[in-house]
Amino acid sequence: MDTEAQPTERDRSSRPSGSEKTTSEPAGPEDRSRFALLSRVSSWIPGGRITLTLLVCLLFLLLLSTFVLRPFQIPSGSMEQGLRIGDRVLVNKLAYRFGAAPQRGDIVVFDGTGYFGHADYVKRVVGVGGDHVVCCDREGSIQVNGRPVDESGFLYPGDSPSTVPFDVVVPGGTLFVLGDHRSHSSDSRDHLGSPGGGMIPVDDVIGRADGIIWPFGHATRLHRPDAYARVPAAGRTGAHG
Predict the structure, then answer these.
(1) Does the annotation count 78 as an active-site position?
(2) Residue-level pLDDT at 57
(3) Cβ atoms 137, 130 nearer than 8 A
(4) Which one, 14, 20, 84, 204, has least CB within 10 Å?
């Protein structure tokens, strides 16, 4: 009878291999202190961690609305047919920060206090600082720096570019703005004799309307139209023609 001991497989769980890593590490002092602080704060609030989580989310949304994005409800039909009464647009409050400036064709939301009235307004930028804006030429079009602008892509069907003639040079740091539904819009044309001459200071612009977010069936991104792409810069040939 063979009494020689048979080799047995080493119990791998008895001795950890040098190449194996431990599956967990004890929490460090920082982790423990953060966990303790979180537990202590949540214990002070009714509802505990759920309420604390909701408060953090609300704070985040408040900061987002204050500094980055803001919903704005369209109050009138002055920007039809693109923007309808009750539509909610998302206003990008960082669009004109860090050196950027409003451009012709942008839809902007601005504070009209002292210029249009004590409210926020939404209009389309037609002229920027230095631009010479005239209405209307022989074909009935608005001219910017001597170049006719084809507004058929956004002007309310049946409206003329303007029934009010004007010939203005936009001061630096301001904007000349119009509604797309010209016959139902109180805009720069109607305030030419008011303080500021109907111009909106760029500093009073809250942000650029980048998209419709409600109702869902009308949700879309708002793009700057190509109608102003061929307008020359202010002061170039034809600007005062």
Answers:
(1) yes
(2) 52
(3) no
(4) 14
